[in-house]
Design brief:
heterodimer, A: 282 residues, mainly alpha, 11 helices, B: 418 residues, Rossmann fold, OB fold (Dihydrolipoamide Acetyltransferase, E2P), ATP hydrolysis activity (chain B), ATP-binding (chain B), ABC-type transporter activity (chain B), AAA+_ATPase (chain B)
């Protein structure tokens, strides 16, 4: 690569700063808001005048006004997202394996249907789903959210995994068999280590999709039996009816962002290698 | 180590495509056999059936006297080197080579594995790379790791599937001799698939030429070169390829595009009742008439032809002489060209001359050849009418004796070193 001139370097630095500011401003703003006193929300200042953890106490400490609401929804979110991710990854792995390795009639159909489902606007199926779920008793249950989440996570999982599996040199499996491995050993020792990063990346993406959903969460739940965090945020109330819950909402938003950030930071290498594997032939 | 016997092996795919149409082949213990042919001739399928990665539709496959048709690859105890090496990218070079040993649980201690891997690494000069991952190796190094994996198995036979086709020309030459050296030293039965006839001719004790799933001829490299059974083998073996010219027969002379050739008494009965034949003359059997001694000149045919292009290669000079072929044989030759992966370009005579020749492009060159060296093929069946069974047998016998002697010498050298 050729050396960048000083002017080009400055230009790139400016562009980078602009993009970073543009992308991070809302998060920083919410972060700042979450430490403001409820009474100082409308001062028009960006940073809190006095730093306080009162909003966090509100949602986490016993006796906080939004504590039961937040903690139960956090439990729901974690449980529902994990189960939806697990099911999606298992099903998508099997489907993608078949799509990548086998030639069967309707293969294109499966892929196109998956694509179709994933581009279908969520909002347009939410109303019929609401009626159906009420009639068959899935309304306001974990399962009632896991099923629609699968419709979001499965297509993208199938697509990313199928693309990933196509890059795996399947000849390795045969090489292992010739080297003396059973079919199962060949799969476990030669293929699984190569497929793992892809499956892992897919699992993370699926988890984030389920974790971030709002429309299904708010439409298909009514109590803290199944309501996930993004939906629960809308039900926060201030300590009194004259106080806005903006501070608690910000605090909750920061808390639910933390696991995402941690996961991405921990596994960024795997995610990048998972997403780019095969792009450069080794 | 074991002999491999193929008897009427057939492969039919699910869609009804016959990839291998009844191939029989005896591969002796310790022999180096090449399966060669243009793309799509079924050579790789045949190899994969031997190793057990493809089912055998019909026929019998024996390895070391035992029928192995229904055995899984792991029970056939063969080692295979794949075209793209098939190294395990998540394992180091050491673990890649040790992989087959680790699979045989409890058979080897860690110390034994280390010893075997290090021996293989030393043989292949890989000692410095044992801790590296395959992604960081060059093509030639990866190739050697794949061979190392084959060596440690102490397998019944080595199978190679176009192992050198991903390497550049220089490395290919080096690896070729490396494979030959290794095979001689270990004395392991080897089946080697390639479409490259240089590899086939230089490596093989015997070469099996395949075309569209059918075995054309199995013979020593010299046998194939000097006594090909048909047009296909003649056209496939040799570089640059043999020239095929239409030969019109009238009485006791045969008319070629540039020359009239008297039909010898030996040839005459074989041409009985034919009006046109295909004549094959290898490029290296032509000579610059100016450089031929007078005593020899009379025994051959001298003719003049316009040279279109010349290529000077240092040791040799190739002269190209375009000609119009006879429509009666054009279809046969076009079909042959297609079978040989050709592009159906213009018909031209290729002449290989010594590099000191004064022949240049654009001149009418005086060329000479000995009609005794030309081969005559039946235009319909492609059969070689000048094929000499006794000579072919003698060549193969000689080759077999050479092979055994060379194996013994290699083993003796190996013993002396140890």
């Amino acid at each position: 690569m050729k050396q960048l001139s000083t002017r080009a370097k400055i230009a790139w630095a400016l562009i980078t700063i602009f993009v970073l500011a543009y992308a991070l401003f809302p998060i920083v703003s919410i972060f700042a808001t979450s430490f403001k006193l409820p009474s100082q929300l409308n001062l028009g200042l960006f940073w809190p005048k006095t730093w306080t953890t009162v909003n966090y106490e509100e949602i986490l400490a016993p006796g906080g006004s939004a504590q039961t609401l937040f903690l139960s929804s956090l439990r729901n979110s974690i449980g529902i997202s994990l189960i939806a991710t697990a099911i999606a990854v298992v099903l998508a792995t099997l489907a993608a394996y078949a799509i990548a390795r086998l030639d069967f009639p309707g293969k294109r159909m499966v892929l196109l249907t998956a694509l179709g489902v994933s581009i279908f606007p969520v909002i347009s199926i939410v109303t019929p789903l609401f009626n159906l779920w009420r009639n068959i008793g899935l309304y306001d249950t974990w399962l009632g959210l896991i099923i629609p989440y699968l419709s979001l996570t499965l297509p993208i999982s199938i697509w990313t995994l199928a693309a990933f599996f196509r890059q795996i040199p399947w000849e390795l499996e045969q090489a292992a068999q010739v080297d003396g491995a059973t079919t199962w050993q060949a799969f476990r020792k030669a293929i699984v280590p190569l497929a793992a990063p892809g499956v892992f990346t897919t699992a993370l993406i699926a988890f984030f999709i389920a974790w971030n959903d709002f429309v299904y969460g708010i439409s298909l739940t009514s109590t803290d039996r199944a309501r996930p965090v993004p939906a629960a945020l809308a039900f926060f109330t201030g300590a009194s009816q004259f106080e806005e819950p903006t501070g608690s909402i910000s605090a909750a938003a920061i808390i639910v962002t933390i696991p995402v950030v941690i996961l991405v930071l921990l596994f960024q290498r795997q995610i990048v290698s998972g997403l780019t594997q095969g792009a450069v032939k080794g | 180590m074991a002999a491999i016997t193929l008897k009427d092996i057939v492969k039919q795919y699910g869609d009804g495509f016959l990839a291998v149409k009844g191939v029989s082949l005896d591969i002796a213990d310790g022999e180096f056999v090449i399966l060669v042919g243009p793309s799509g001739c079924g050579k790789s399928t045949l190899l994969r059936m031997i190793v057990g990665l493809e089912d055998i539709t019909a026929g019998d496959l024996h390895i070391g006297g035992k029928r192995v048709n229904d055995k899984a690859p792991r029970d056939r105890h063969l080692a295979m080197v794949f075209q793209n090496y098939a190294l395990y990218p998540h394992l180091t070079v050491f673990e890649n080579i040790a992989f087959p040993l680790r699979l045989q649980k409890g058979q080897f201690t860690d110390a034994q594995i280390k010893e075997k891997v290090e021996f293989a690494a030393k043989t292949l000069e890989l000692q410095d790379h044992l801790d590296r991952k395959p992604a960081n190796l060059s093509g030639g190094q990866r190739q050697r790791v794949a061979m190392g994996r084959a060596i440690v198995r102490e397998a019944e036979a080595f199978l190679f599937d176009e192992p050198l086709s991903n390497l550049d020309a220089k490395l290919r030459g080096q690896m070729r001799t490396e494979i030959a050296r290794m095979q001689r030293r270990l004395g392991t039965t080897t089946v080697y698939v390639t479409h490259d006839q240089t590899e086939a001719m230089t490596l093989g004790d015997r070469v099996a030429v395949l075309r569209k799933g059918e075995l054309q001829q199995v013979a020593s490299p010299r046998g194939l070169y000097e006594q090909p059974v048909n047009l296909f083998v003649a056209g496939f073996i040799g570089s640059p390829p043999m020239n095929f010219l239409p030969g019109e027969i009238s009485g006791s002379t045969m008319t070629l595009p540039f020359a009239e050739v008297p039909i010898s008494a030996e040839l005459a009965p074989k041409l009985q009742g034919k009006e046109i034949v295909i004549v094959g003359i290898r490029p290296e059997h032509f000579e610059d008439a100016a450089l031929v001694e007078d005593a020899k000149k009379g025994a051959g045919v001298t003719f003049s032809a316009p040279v279109d292009v010349t290529e000077w290669l240092g040791s040799e000079l190739y002269a190209y002489i375009p000609f119009d072929t006879n429509p009666d044989v054009a279809t046969t030759l076009e079909e042959l060209d297609r079978d040989l992966d050709g592009e159906g370009l213009r018909t031209q005579l290729i002449v290989a001359l010594p590099s000191e020749t004064k022949i240049r492009d654009g001149v009418d060159a005086d060329l000479w050849f000995d009609p005794a060296r030309m081969m005559v093929f039946d235009p319909e069946s492609g059969e070689n009418l000048t094929w000499n069974g006794t000579a072919a047998e003698a060549l193969d016998r000689e080759n077999e004796a050479d092979r055994k002697a060379s194996l013994e010498r290699a083993q003796a050298r190996e013993k002396a070193r140890a």
